[in-house]
Amino acid sequence: MGLEKHIVAPLSKEEVQNLKAGDYVYITGVIYTARDAAHKRMYEALQKGEEIPFSLKNNVIYYMGPSPAREGQIIGSAGPTTSSRMDKYTPLLLDTGLLGMIGKGYRSQSVIESIIKNKAVYFVATGGAGALLSKCIKKSKVIAYEDLGTEAIHELYVENFPVIVAIDSNGNNLYENTDIIS
Amino acid sequence: MRVINTGEIVSNIKEMCIEANYKLASDVSTRIMDAYKNETSDLGKLILGQLCENMNIAENEQIPICQDTGMTIVFVKIGQDVHIEGGSLEEAINEGIRQGYKEGFLRKSVVSDPIIRKNTMDNTPGVIHYEIVAGDFIEITVVPKGFGSENMSRIYMLKPSDGVEGIKEAVLKTVKLAGPNACPPIVVGVGIGGSFEKCALLAKKALTRNLDEPSNFPHIRKLEEELLEEINKLGIGPGGFGGKITALGVKIETYPTHIAGLPVAVNICCHVNRHITRIL
Ligand code: SF4
């Protein structure tokens, strides 16, 4: 296991470059959710040179669509979804300034290359721990694409949100078996 | 002949959708807790510790175990001596899902068309499998199935000559492919035999079995045990970061098949293996 670290979001370039695959990191600050449908919209907007709902610069996207909050709760269950479904859209987002991603599972070779090129970082949160992770979310509001239901973009304020560095800015990859996928 | 009203079906399905998403059956939760005790990798143990805590928070604070509260798979066994009154059975099942996902604060994860992809906003329709059986009861099993693991499931049309070795190879290949994407530790449901669609259905049914009850057939029980051992030797581990616990259980269902075929379906489920059965 790597080192335990605390970082702030939005990220700083220097801090990201100090993170190493295997580090156990607690994130505090503002992050944004986006999954399949929101990625598709942002990708298409960027390709057409249009504005997207929030600036990607130095920001972190959390691949997550929460369950609804009960009265008195900030958010429902809120764990990561499988990152590879976003792979097609990710390099363009990284080229536009995105610096960190939180999800679960493998990334494609082209995403790994883009992470190295942009000196970004890929974090993994524990899949299936949505109740636990929701406790670290202190504020949540939908800022765009409300029609997508759970897939709308949420701006979250998180405190000590626990993640593991799966792919660091040098491309070191904590998943040992990446060679078994294509 | 016994009469069952659709109202009773609606309310039961509703309750089952909710219950399944907040508390795992004890066979599954016990295996997760045992995994925590037995895992030797540091990171693996940490992740399993989080999963144990997650189960407690889910139950005590009424937050679903996982935000992916699934597409709702429903198995319905209808006794042939039952008459259902009060409207369409299919509509009653979907109404139960609709109410359960609304009142239970569960995520709506279903799109109305696989290509146009517009959210139906009430998690309907469910995927419903009917079976007519002898008797005067209705047995309903509700399986909220997450798609992180569903996406990593596979079907193989093997040759009879591939035999047990071929089956094992197919299962291990699927588990490796799933790796971290299916939220390990996983439960593996395997369907062997039948036809293309039958083996898939068997694999899904296998996931609803109690993990503590092995197959009644000695050769299948042996295969379940051997596969569990071999899967755990792969070292994928909790979260896919390495460790000795990759699977919590392997369940196999079989059916007679054609002289020319050996269909094998591998349905992967994450540790949030939700299923609940009631008999009306
Ligand atoms: S695969 Fe299972 S544990 Fe993982 S996100 Fe989906 S439902 Fe949750």
UniProtKB/TrEMBL annotation, chain A:
Give the Gene Ontology MF terms in alphabetical order: hydro-lyase activity
Domain of life the protein comes from: Bacteria
Keyword Cell membrane in annotation: no
Domain (Fe-S hydro-lyase tartrate dehydratase beta-type catalytic): residue spans on this chain = 10-177
Q: Does the keyword Membrane apply?
A: no
| Annotated transmembrane regions | none
**Pfam families in the record:** Fumerase_C
Q: Which SUPFAM superfamilies match?
A: FumA C-terminal domain-like (SSF117457)
- Which Gene3D superfamilies does the record cross-reference, listed alphabetically? Fe-S hydro-lyase, tartrate dehydratase beta-type, catalytic domain (3.20.130.10)
Q: Which UniProt keywords apply?
A: Lyase
Q: Which InterPro entries match?
A: Fe-S_hydro-lyase_TtdB-typ_cat, Fe-S_hydroAse_TtdB_cat_sf
Q: Can you tell me which family this protein belongs to?
A: Belongs to the class-I fumarase family.
Q: Which NCBIfam families match?
A: PRK06842.1, ttdB_fumA_fumB
What is the recorded name of this protein?
A: Fe-S hydro-lyase tartrate dehydratase beta-type catalytic domain-containing protein
**What organism does this protein naturally occur in?**
Herbinix hemicellulosilytica
UniProtKB/TrEMBL annotation, chain B:
The superkingdom listed in its UniProt entry is: Bacteria
Q: Which residues form the Fe-S hydro-lyase tartrate dehydratase alpha-type catalytic domain?
A: 12-277
Q: What Pfam families does the record tag this protein with? A: Fumerase
Q: Does the keyword Lipid metabolism apply?
A: no
Which terms are listed as keywords in the entry?
4Fe-4S, Iron, Iron-sulfur, Lyase, Metal-binding
Q: Which GO terms describe its molecular function?
A: 4 iron, 4 sulfur cluster binding; lyase activity; metal ion binding
Presence of keyword Iron: yes
NCBIfam families documented for this protein: PRK06246.1 (NF004885), ttdA_fumA_fumB (TIGR00722)
Q: Which family is it part of?
A: Belongs to the class-I fumarase family.
Mind telling me which PANTHER family this protein's record contains? FUMARATE HYDRATASE-RELATED (PTHR30389), L(+)-TARTRATE DEHYDRATASE SUBUNIT ALPHA-RELATED (PTHR30389:SF17)
Query: What is the official name of this protein in its record?
Result: Fe-S hydro-lyase tartrate dehydratase alpha-type catalytic domain-containing protein
